[in-house]
Amino acid sequence: MENEIEKIVLKLNEIDAVKLGEFKLKSGIISPIYIDLRVTVSEPKLLSLIGDFMYKRVYNDSNSGNKPKLLCGVPYTALPIATAMSVQNDIPMVIRRKEAKAYGTKQLIEGRFKEGDNVLVIEDLVTSGASVLETVRDLKSVGLTVTDVVVLLDRQQGAKQELEKNGLRLHSVFTMEQLIDTLIKAGKLVGPQLELVQKFLDANRQVVVPVQPTTPQPVKSHLSFQERSQLANCNKMAQKLFRLMSEKKSNLAVAADLTTKAEVLKLADAIGSEIVVLKTHVDIISDYDEDFVKQLKALSEKHKFLIFEDRKFADIGNTVKYQYQSGVYKISEWSDMVTVHAVAGPGIIDSFKDSVLQKECGLLMLAQMSSKGSLCVGEYTQQVVEMAKQNQDCVMGFICQERLSNMPEHFVLMTPGVQLNNTADTLGQQYNTPDYIVQEKSTDVIIVGRGIYQSQDPKSEAHKYRTIAWDSYEKRLSK
């Protein structure tokens, strides 16, 4: 066994998978040694050897009867190892996506499986065990069972203990200490480099890297809009919208992405009785003037809907303040809610506070977007939600694709990219059905654009969307 470990370690060193220098690990620790196993994809014989050795590390002749039903590699470096192991041992795989796609099967776990199947999780190396726990969490969410995890390298910084706390057995081919000893014996690590690495090992051998909280998961909301209006007393516009939805029995917003004021006003008058929000892009209206705003406000009062200017403010605070209050459009004088990006940091919200609170306007933070390849994901989305929580008097809710567990019930969730047919356009816009968005993703307001304003009869089409979305909301409550 020692000869096989030595063979793998020296081959990894030969292909430059063992790197010396200064590297920041995912855990945040600065290390003088970094193991980059991604290069093994270019070494099929080595990849095959690693897969075989890792499998035998868990399942030898004495416990061959406990072989797993499925294999799953932690994305992405471990996927080639898992594939090699699957082919060598004729064991099926499943693949865990880092994020479920908003189109196609929309599955987080891909492959054929049934509830209760035992899965061997495969990782290249572990420090804290956080990536492994994320994968295990998602496997368990679809009813799969995980008891064992196998890795090539254990950096000996808390992963084994952390996984044991979660009922998982960790099997490693070799530890960081064994890797270093092998390189020293082979004369591959000498002089100042050896001293630096040895000091790092001595300093960190007993250091346990804490596992950071995982990404919040989608959850269902079973409170009614009326109940949530009572929770939203910290934000007057959120409260107003919840009450309006309950009163009109509608959770439909229409995006009036039209380029003349006559088109926008005609659409607003036709569909006003069906909607709770009309979303505008005022800067695409070619003949905009103050009279347009007066007429739009009159229609909003006539039909009882709110005006949402989808400006997507994203500049520094001082600039945003002028964009909102001044200029040609004077958005602050007529809009009930506006969208804000978080890329500029929390200061962008501060620039709205005085005017927003005075007028009772609401900010909608862009937590997720419906366009293909959007960067509004993961850590960015989490930071947006936390920023909103710190500014609940100004922020009324989110533009998002799903309700996450860290989104409090008093925030309104609005989802664009909705059509009766879940297709896509040529510019990256992806669509989901009203039923899927409201029932499965538990958002509150569906935003429909072309599916209504490009139809032959916008009013009847709006009524159709309104009915489906409201029925989906009532079904969600009844579950």
UniProtKB/TrEMBL annotation:
Enzyme nomenclature, EC number: 2.4.2.10, 4.1.1.23
Organism the protein comes from: Tieghemostelium lacteum
Database matches in CDD domains: OMP_decarboxylase_like, PRTases_typeI
Single GO MF annotation: orotidine-5'-phosphate decarboxylase activity
Catalytic residues identified in the record: 310, 312, 315
SMART domains: OMPdecase
Presence of the UniProt keyword Isomerase in the record: no
Positions bound to substrate: 257, 279, 370, 429, 449-450
Pathway(s) served: Pyrimidine metabolism; UMP biosynthesis via de novo pathway; UMP from orotate: step 1/2; Pyrimidine metabolism; UMP biosynthesis via de novo pathway; UMP from orotate: step 2/2
InterPro entries, per database record: Aldolase_TIM, OMPdecase, OMPdecase_AS, OMPdeCOase_dom, OPRT, Or_phspho_trans_dom, PRTase-like, PRTase_dom
SUPFAM superfamilies named in the record: PRTase-like, Ribulose-phoshate binding barrel
Orotidine 5'-phosphate decarboxylase domain boundaries: 251-465
Cross-referenced Pfam families: OMPdecase, Pribosyltran
Name of the protein this chain belongs to: Uridine 5'-monophosphate synthase
Keyword match Membrane: no
Family according to the record: In the N-terminal section; belongs to the purine/pyrimidine phosphoribosyltransferase family. In the C-terminal section; belongs to the OMP decarboxylase family.
Signal sequence range: none
GO biological process: 'de novo' pyrimidine nucleobase biosynthetic process; 'de novo' UMP biosynthetic process
Keywords, alphabetical: Decarboxylase, Glycosyltransferase, Lyase, Multifunctional enzyme, Pyrimidine biosynthesis, Transferase
